[in-house]
Amino acid sequence: MKTKNNTLLYILFITFFAILLPAGYLTGLLSVNTISVWGRYFCFAIAALGIDLIWGYTGILSMCQAFFFCLGSYGIAMHLLLKKTVASGATLPDFMAWNKIDTLPFFWQPFHSFGWSIVLCLLIPAAFAFIVGLVLFRSRIKGVYMAIITQALTLAMWLIFLRNETNLGGTNGITDFNTILGYPLSSSSVKLALYLLSLSMLCAAYYCCYRITHSKFGKVLQAIRDSESRVSYTAYKVTDYKLAVFVVAALLAAVGGMLYLPQTGIITPGRMDVKASVEMVMWVALGGRGNLKGAVIGALLVNFLYSICTSLFPDSWLFILGFLFVITVLYFDKGFMGLGDTIRKKFSATRLKTSQTH
Amino acid sequence: MRTSLLRMLMCCLLLPLFSAGQDSASIYTAQLLQPPADSVRTQAIGRLAALRIPATFPLLMAINDKKLYLLDNKAVTINSDSSSKGTYQLYSLYPNNTLLINSSGQPLLLPLSALKTVDIPRADRLLLAGIAPLLNLFSNDPQKRILAYSQLKHTSDSITLRILKAALAKESNADALRTGKDALYAIQLYKASSATNANAYIDSIADNWSDNAPALLRDYARSGFLNQETAQYAAAKAVLLEKRYDNLQRVQHFFSGLSLGSILVLIALGLSIVYGLAGIINMAHGEFMMIGAYTTYCTQLLFTKALGIPQTDLFFFFALPFSFLMAGSLGWILERLVIRHLYAKPLESLLATWGVSLILIQTARLLFGDLTAVKTPQLLSGGWQVSPHLTLPYNRIFIIVLAMLMVLFTYLMLYRTRLGLQIRSVTQNRQMSACLGIETRRVASITFFIGSGLAGLAGCAITLIGNVVPDMGQTYIVDSFLVVVTGGVGKLAGTIVSGLGIGFFTKLSESFFQAVYGKVFILMFIMLFMQYKPKGLFPDKGRIAED
User: Fold this and answer.
1) Is residue B122 in a domain?
2) Over 60: is that where the pLDDT of B16 sits?
3) A79-95 burial: b if 16+ Cβ within 10 Å, else e
């Protein structure tokens, strides 16, 4: 019964996003921007899968996923900007020239090549997550402490990225690219291709996460979530498992960020401030944590709501989001995906009560 | 003592000049005010400018500024800003430069229409261009006088020196006096021909210790003006001054660290108690601070607009309890509505209270707009000038004192009252306390009231040093959580030590790196610290099971 349900959901999802939306665009019913917007949401969904792995399945609330997401975005942005600069005959990106810098900083050098950019975009977040995870998990920091420290880390990184001296564009971020691998970013076929790429990456990421959570490794993760000390008493190296899942989550966030950049055309430090990092966690909470489908649907739904609400009633979006936060946490512990379960349980509880009183 | 000596000296010096110039000055002044012909006035102004008699300077200033008027055939000038009714205070110009008073002893206030304007053509005013820098020495604006003094450093003619001395004898502003003396000693230093004299002037400059005294002494030392010894003496003095200045800077950093730390302690106190007691991560805690700040703003509005008491410090002292009560009651309501369902679920509470904070921020933005500011009470503006280069602002002192009082209050509440005993017991073991008849829910809501109130009080204090903006709470919330984490949850001593410590370190590292890198440095430090003390500075002792 359950598998049948799942298959139906997958088929629905694939038909809608892989066939109906592109078909809508090709027949002229939808604008290419709508396609591109959904492509962006898929990138968020990929990052949300990572959050679900680390928070929903392992019980570690990491608030620095937004930072890893931005690392991926910044890497690709640096590559695209360098390509554009070289094509226009300049030696330095505009903003560096404005900041009176005469040589390209060393960490920009490898981003001339596309291959290296991809490798670094994955390597840097992974290495960062590894080091931070090693330090934090080794000292058995967990729960709230983990959340606060990773949040503070994101804050510190945000502050660093805001500065002009770090040569990452400061508050304005990096923007104004025109081509990717020689294809113009503004053309609709490139946008469609990026959309399809994001969709297939999302499906691939979902499949990987599904395999992970259904493997022995995934079972240990859930055991850690439910009782960490008992897992360690049974001779599992808890730190290694946590570290591994932390790195995987960071990689997923970075992949999301890398795909996100060419579709929006700008990355600013605002993507990783305190607000953004909590919001990312909230996607998963709203969709249903400990449930991969929930993470994907949460990310898509919240962002879709965001784009509707900010255009219809811009002042009240924060109210809506705030109330969603509170109500989800208070009443719908399992999120959107667990909605049916929660209501059924409530219903049967009241029925049980009434039958007892009779 | 020194000034009076200076003044006596100056009188002796100036007397001959006065007696010679006085009569002719009176004649020229009279000619200037009622000239029989335009050429006579031009000549009179030219002569007065050439004579450079300090007593005539206010008059010449008035001409230069086009503010010369006649009142009963006497030359007067007006001060720069008018009163509310469009009237001006008047000053006589020659031979005395004093404020005019009416028969009842109050300053005489007259509108411009009651005065006769004396028009001096531009060509005549240009005659004064040569002595314009000297004229500014007698300006009514201390800032202009300071500028005029500092421009005099490298002149050396004896008339300028005399005028400078005359100006200094009249000087009333402390900063201007320091700059002026600096100029005077500098001129005299370069004139000094014997080593003892030069050394005396070097000492005077060092004692006077104006902002650019070290630079002045260094210049002198480099020029090797008199001989090698005086040059070395000047250089040594310059080094000494700079070292002393550095020490004072260190005290200043220490002080600002203390005040930042006090703010962090004020915010973290409530946070720490609430977290320890109920296992709640209250991300909306910073917003209660914001509520406190807006309460202060509203109290100010109430006093100035509704009650019509424009200039009073009273509002601030009412705002303190108001903001405590306001933030406290809202906190209590929040506890009733939301937090109550989330006890001992820290991660869930983190998300829910984040939602609450979004709602509160947006509400504040809709109600008050993006930027408001509270006027600092008169009593707390300014500072305690410990030495010329060390001023401790009263508002920061107030914040430190407030934090100390609140820590004391919290200590007494926690360790000397029945409620405190109950709070501590619930913190230690909720179920056991409930078994022993403590109403844990009631204790929790009272604690939440007090914790939020303390944040409100912090918000009220912060209006003294910054603007009031809707998302001001978010600036402090991560820092104050770091304080709680480092200090150990629910520990009063831990909160104080780590709050002050983080405050100090932040300010200290800001003096080495830039502010941002200082923050990153602090974070790295805390992460390393947690390697050794994962439960904070003062962990619970004994075998308290983790899961």
Assistant:
1) no
2) no
3) bbbbbbbeeeeeebbeb
